[in-house]
Amino acid sequence: MKHIDDKGRIAVQPWMVEPATQAVLGALAAGGAEARFVGGSVRDALLEGRIEDDIDIATPAPPERVIELLEKKGIKVVPTGLAHGTVTAIAGTPPRHFEITTLRRDVETYGRRARVTFDADWAGDAARRDFTMNAIFLDPDGTVHDPVGGLADLHARRVRFVGDPTARIGEDVLRLLRYYRFEARFGAGGGDPRARAACRATAYLLPGLSPERIAQELVKLLEAPDPVPALQMMQEDGVLAVILPQAGRLDRLRRMIAIEPGTDPLRRLAALIDVDGAGAAAVAERLHFSNAWRNRLGGLGAPWSIDPRQDTRAQRRTLYRLGAERYRDIALLIAAEEGMSDDRLAQLLALARDWTPPVFPLTGHDVTVLGIPPGPRVGRLLKAVQDWWAAGDFRADRAACLAQLEKLSATPASA
Ligand code: ATP
Ligand code: MG
């Protein structure tokens, strides 16, 4: 943890004095609006971590005033969540986002939405935040303000709700998933018994969240260096069964994390779920993934079409068919599932990384010039020649492929 001196200050951090940050703080100060950093940037700076791209700022000034002051200095402002007091300032190159939120109280909450008033002081604003480690304020000069005891919790790596966990989850059930996500990133292990009891008791509320929200939280959780202990808690607390009943393979995920060359939330998800291809597609559907992610996850369900025992030539053929990304992901999944020697896994991953797939020398035009009318047979013939070419380890050149095409096209039964 960062050293806090006897005046209650940490050293001013580079991101606090970047031109973009200075421009935003300057614009607010010019209008007499006080501003403090809060949330992720403060927490991560205190932990000596790298801060994320977005910087959260809290201010007593109402949102209309914030917009006016920023625009006066020519800073781009987007009214991202005006009703909740949040505007986004965009400044700097490359552009940085500053989420500026007016000190507020949540007067009435219904599900994820709340009616808010902008009459809170700093302590009041801290009280509406989710976890104590997320409710530490930092002045531009480095002075730390800790109204709810977040520093001690951060130091002890305790993810603790501000206030009563059950009540806070009742106001906004997203906090339940955020709890496990922050446990995954910052928790010392085991979790907070009160928080976990509250999560167990309120897990039935989770289907009230949109699938996109659930997916977003799950993906962020899976991006933590080691999400397995938090997932284990989610399993024990009956949370995983509600949001992702297919998540039965924590053992396999644990083994994959030990051997994977870099974190990848989607491949980790594939290791976690116990499904075939159709089941993987169903999970992607349930989580409302983008088409690209649906395709990727759908291609990672069992049975897997790599046989690690086959020779390099056969591996190249499989690699050509699957593409490098899917081949690499499946190799890692197989290694986690069945075990594989470090050498063999390294060989397969190197093949996927280094091998440039050759370009198939024929196109549809080569088929139609033979007098075959455009239609499905053109594609079938091309595919048949391509399979033959791949089976021959991609050695046949254009002339040889053309000869094979002519041979096949002359045999009506062949394709
Ligand atoms: P990250 O590094 O993931 O961005 P963060 O703490 O900055 O972490 P954000 O989602 O960016 O998280 O939210 C910024 C701050 O807003 C949080 O630190 C917290 O104080 C508050 N906050 C966000 N979501 C909630 C919520 N659902 N309930 C209460 N407070 C919240
Ligand atoms: Mg943030």
Task: Please outline what is shown here.
The chain contains 22 helices and nine strands. It is α+β, with helices and mostly antiparallel strands. The structure holds adenosine-5'-triphosphate and magnesium ion.
CATH architecture tag of the largest domain? 2-Layer Sandwich
The counted number of beta strands is 9
| Average pLDDT reading | 95
What is the rounded distance between the termini? Answer: 68 Å
Describe the overall structure.
By secondary structure, this protein is α+β, with helices and mostly antiparallel strands. It has four domains: 1-156, 2-Layer Sandwich (Beta Polymerase, domain 2); 164-235, Hydrophobic Seed Protein, CATH 1.10.110; 246-357, no CATH class; 364-414, no CATH class. The protein has helices at residues 14-17, 19-30, 40-46, 63-72, 122-127, 150-156, 165-171, 174-186, 193-202, 211-222, 228-236, 240-243, 250-259, 265-272, 277-286, 291-298, 312-322, 324-338, 342-354, 364-368, 376-391, 398-409, and strands at 36-38, 55-59, 76-81, 86-91, 96-102, 105-110, 113-117, 137-138, 144-145. The strands form three sheets. A five-stranded mixed beta sheet has the order 1-2-5-4-3. A hairpin with a 4-residue loop joins strand 4 (86-91) and strand 5. Helix 13 (250-259) crosses helix 18, helix 15 (277-286) runs antiparallel to helix 16 (291-298) and helix 21 packs across helix 22. The longest helix has 16 residues, at 376-391. The protein is elongated, with a radius of gyration of 28 Å. The N and C termini lie far apart (68 Å). Bound molecules: adenosine-5'-triphosphate and magnesium ion (MG).
